[in-house]
Amino acid sequence: MRRPTIPDLAKASGVSVATINRVLSSAPNVRLATRERVQRAAEEIGFYGLGSIQARVAAARPRLRFGVLLLQPHRPFYKIVASELEQAAASAAGADVDLRLEFLEDLSPHNVAFRALELARDCSAICLTSAVHPVVTEALEQIQAKGIPVFALISQISVTGQMSYIGLDNWKVGRTSAWAFANICKTPGKIGILMGNPRYRNQEMNEAGFRSYFREYAPDFTLLEPISTFESAAVAEEMTERLLADHHDLAGLYISGGGIRGALAALRAGGKAGSMVVVGYDLTDVTRDALLDGTMTMVISHPLARLARDAIDGMIRACANPFSNQTSIVPFEIYTRENL
Q1: What is the pLDDT of residues 116-157, one digit of tens each?
Q2: Do residues 330 and 166 lie in contact, with contact meaning Cβ atoms separated by under 8 Å?
Q3: Helix, strand or coil for residue 141?
Q4: 281 in the same domain as 319
Q5: What average pLDDT does the segment 285-296 reach?
Q6: Which terminal residue of the chain has fewer beta carbons within 10 Å of its beta carbon, N or C?
Q7: Which of 298, 323, 303, 281 lies closest to 166 in space, CA to CA?
Q8: pLDDT-based confidence at residue 322 (cuts at 50, 70, 90)
Q9: How far, in Å, CA of 51 to CA of 39, rounded?
Q10: How far is Cα 102 from Cα 109, in angstroms, rounded to an integer?
């Protein structure tokens, strides 16, 4: 077979022969996307200079360090988030990404602010999940003032659009959860609500959307006041036990925050597994088992691979334009026992 030539590569790439020559000579006036397109075409046709092209593309890619702060390492959801972010960073097309990923065991505002400031010292952009608090907000504004992009992941920190956000439309999440109760419960009744911490804006918006749906479409239901679990499984278990003891006629339980493992344990121990509608968040081994054994009715979940890709790609774009907003609202997934 004839060995592919430069004109062959130009045709396969959809660029001119002159552009191919500029790629091969490492000329600076070629966009990275064009270099990568030429590389892909060279791989497809077996171009003899593929090694040289790969080396030149690698040299042209920006090298960026991103810092990520996630919540407690013992929580399965954040372990999965971390894994997806690492995969997204490793396969990022627009840059060579060095990911510094840290977990926050201490969720106090002062610790979150301190860790964010420390992480920003040697990172091109940072991304974090955090509750809203003036101390945290001030630290993040200091970071942004230095031209370092800050991304809120999963839970919004700023509602004014001054900070990029990667996550769900939590108003819709709350209303969708309410729809499930209104349509699955056989008769209207009391709905218990567990929140992790109302300072997490996603949980606050979840509850607001949840209540708005009932006011509009299902006013015969009684929504109990939300109980905070402080993102703790032990507290969630205790609060669920108290709900079951105080409200024998509870028709459903909405688990809108952290500690879901404890809430599920209390439902099983109290003999309530499968006897009431239970809706919570994010598909993990814990919630998958709860769906399969009937303890949970429905799970609304982040599409974590998409979430991670959007976060990494958004940070790459923000580094090229630090004052741009790279917010990405990702579609949520719905799981029941029947579609696992």
Answers
A1: 999 999 999 999 999 999 999 999 999 999 999 999 999 999
A2: yes
A3: helix
A4: no
A5: 97
A6: N
A7: 303
A8: confident
A9: 9
A10: 16
Q: Which domain holds residue 54?
A: 6-60
Intra-chain end-to-end CA distance of the chain, in Å: 49
Q: Is residue 340 part of a domain?
A: no
Tell whether 41 and 149 lie within a shared domain: no
Report, in angstroms and rounded to the nearest whole number, the Rg of the chain calculated over CA atoms.
24
Whether pLDDT at 54 is above 90: no
Amino acid letter, 304: L
Same-domain pairing of 296 and 175: yes
**127 with 68: CB under 8 angstroms?**
yes
Structural domain includes residue 338 = no
Residues 201 and 116 in one domain: no
Residue 2 parent element (H or E): none
- Which residues lie below 8 Å from residue 120, measured CB to CB, with a gap of 6+? 67, 126, 143, 146, 148
Q: 33 CB contacts (<8 Å, ≥6 apart)?
A: none
* Rounded Cα–Cα distance for residues 85 and 165 (Å): 15
Give the per-residue pLDDT at 159.
Answer: 63
- Where does the chain have alpha helices with state H? 6-13, 17-24, 32-45, 50-60, 76-90, 109-120, 134-145, 170-184, 201-217, 233-246, 260-269, 285-292, 304-320
Q: How far is the C-alpha of 263 from the C-alpha of 31, rounded, in Å?
A: 52
On whether both 227 and 296 belong to a single domain, the answer is yes
Residue with tokens 């004052």: 323
Q: What is the CATH number of the domain that holds 193?
A: 3.40.50.2300
> Which residue is listed with tokens 């499984």?
233
Helix (H, G, I), strand (E, B) or coil at 249: coil
Together in a domain, 288 and 324? no
Prediction pTM value: 0.85
Q: Are residues 80 and 197 in the same domain?
A: no
Exposed, middle or buried: residue 317 (CB in 10 Å: 0-12, 13-18, 19+)? middle
